[in-house]
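As agreed, record passed on underneath.
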Amino acid sequence: MSTVLVGKICWVLLIVGWYVIRYPFERRAKRRRVAATRRGRAETVRMLISLSGLGIIPGIFVATGLPRFASYVPSPFQTGLGMIALIVALVLFRLTHKALGRMWSVSLDIREKHELVTSGIYRHVRHPMYSAFWTMALAQALLLPNLVAGLAGLVGFGTLFFLRIGPEEAMMEETFGEAWRDYRSRTARLIPGIY
């Protein structure tokens, strides 16, 4: 089996793993009422950009090999690093969903009786879901040997992250006030002790 095929199969497993982890939380979230939301046109555009980078563009490459001009032959080492990043991304993703439980939301929503989650992986990082998605985008870049499809996740998710993080943190401060400010002061945004 070629290294290219191994990378493509691993990317598909990453997407399947992501969906299997997320699906039960998504179903449960539909049953809980939203008290406040920051969804709107801008959020829809951000989500579509992220979906394009992490799903549509790499999916086209995996299915068709397009765009061929941007393809290259990967090293087994690169693919191996991609497999490690894949595992780390899925573990982070699962830990994040487990810690959030009933408070999980796909977008900028505050649920009725929403509580500030500071336990589990949230003890160390304020936005471990974003850490998981950054790691997922890194895995994609390493697993898919195509400069367009591989890097699309970093660009697509990066766009969502940098345009969403400010409004999200403002919403959390507005909702939780001093509890949020205290939590923010003792935790990193994405990587403990670094950022």
User: Anything to note?
Assistant: The chain is about 70% helix and 5% strand. The beta strands are 34-37, 109-111. The longest helix spans residues 147-176.
